[in-house]
Design brief:
Blueprint lengths: L2 E5 L2 H4 L6 E5 L4 E7 L2 E6 L13 E2 L5 E2 L6 E2 L16 E7 L2 E5 L1
Antiparallel strand pairs: 1-9, 2-3, 3-4, 4-8, 5-6, 6-7, 8-9
The protein binds FE2/S2 (inorganic) cluster.
The site of FE2/S2 (inorganic) cluster (FES) has 8 residues, from loops.
Length: 104
């Protein structure tokens, strides 16, 4: 695993006000999520049937909700909190003095 800089500031990532964005890191795409003052990251596709998570939304607890069948995933561990038994890959994010980094 290695750290990759993805932006200077969170303002650079969430330019249109949407709290979920998809970014292309060359060999893979990931979703970056803003929840309150935290930034999280997860796989671009739902582990159930491959829907694009960028088209989903966040619930009141900060879980990401898949747009297709509405399964919910905790963004800390990727656990499927609605009980269907799926796991969404998540990635560590660090907000450093010189920018925002993701660990892939
Ligand atoms: S594709 Fe995401 S819940 Fe079915």
């Amino acid at each position: 695993m290695s750290w990759h800089k993805i932006a200077e500031t969170s303002t650079d990532l969430f330019i249109n006000g949407n709290p979920i964005v998809e970014i292309d890191l060359g060999e893979k795409k990931v979703c970056i999520i803003k929840w309150k003052d935290e930034i999280k990251a997860c796989a671009e596709k739902c582990p159930h049937a491959g829907a694009k998570m960028v088209d989903g939304y966040l619930d009141a607890l900060g879980n990401i909700v898949c747009p297709l069948h509405k399964y919910k995933f905790n963004l800390e561990k990727g656990r499927n909190v609605t009980g269907e038994g799926y796991f969404l890959k998540t990635y560590l994010i660090e907000q450093r003095a010189d920018g925002i980094y993701i660990n892939l």
